[in-house]
Amino acid sequence: MHWFLGDDFVALKNIFEILSYIATMVGVYGVFYAIKSFKKSEEDSRQTEQSKLMENSIEVLRVFSTNIIPQIEKFESEVEETYQNLIASIKEQVLKEDGKDLDEQNLPEELVSVLKLQAKAASGGYRLMNQLEQVCAFIKYDLIIPDVVYPTIHSVFLRFLKRNEDLLKKVTSDHAPYNNIYGVRDKWSEISAKEELDREQRELDLKRANLNKTAK
Predict the structure, then answer these.
(1) Is the distance from CB of 168 to CB of 129 less than 8 angstroms?
(2) From CA 27, how far away is CA 181, in angstroms rounded?
(3) Residue 79: how many CB atoms within 10 A of its CB?
(4) What is the pTM of this model?
(5) How many CB atoms lie within 10 A of CB 76?
(6) Measured between alpha carbons, how far is 207 from 193 in angstroms, rounded to an integer?
(7) How many CB atoms lie within 10 A of CB 56?
(8) 108: phi > 0 → left, psi -120 to 50 → alpha, else beta; which?
(9) What are phi and psi of 100, to 5 degrees?
(10) Are the C-beta atoms of residues 191 and 154 closer than 8 Å to each other?
(11) How does pLDDT run across 157-200, given as a tens digit for each residue?
C-alpha cells in the first residue's frame, strides 16, 4: 500500500509527526505551567500564612501591653493590700480575745501561705490566670511568630508565674488543667535558661580573653 500512496503518504506521515511534536510540546508547556502555578499558589499561601502569624503576634503583644501587664501590676498591688488587711483583722481578733498584740513575724508559715493565697484569689488572680490561658493558646500552638513575641513578654510572664506558683497550683484541676500556661511556661523556661547559660559563657570567654591579653 505504501507504494500506492507515494508522496501523499510521506506528506501525511510528516503532518502526523508535526502534530505529534506539537502535542508533545503543548503537554510539556502545560506541565510547566501547572508546576509554575502550583509554586506561585504555594508561595501565596506561605505569604498569607506569615501575614496571619504576624497579625496574631501583634495581637498577643497588644493584649499583653494594654491588658495583662496593667492587670498584673494592679493585682500585685491589691494582693499586698489585701494581705495586710487580713493580718490586721487577725491581730485585732487576737487582741480582743487574748489581750495580746500579735507579732506578724511569729505567724506559722502555713497560715501565712493560706492568707497570701486568699489575698491573691480576692484580688482577681483567677481571672488573670484565665486570660493568660487564652493568650497562651496562640503561643503553644505556634499561631504566632516566636521571634516577635518571646523577646518582649517572656520575662514578665515567667516572673509572674514564679511569684504565683501557689495560685496556679490552686486553680489547676482536671476540669481546668491550664495546659496552655504550663506548656508555654516550660518551653520558655527552657529557652530562657539556655540564653542565661549562653550569656554566662560569653562573659567567661571575655574574661578569659582579657586574662590572656594581660598575661602577654
Answers:
(1) yes
(2) 54
(3) 23
(4) 0.75
(5) 15
(6) 21
(7) 18
(8) beta
(9) -120, 150
(10) yes
(11) 999 999 999 999 999 999 999 999 999 999 999 999 999 999 99
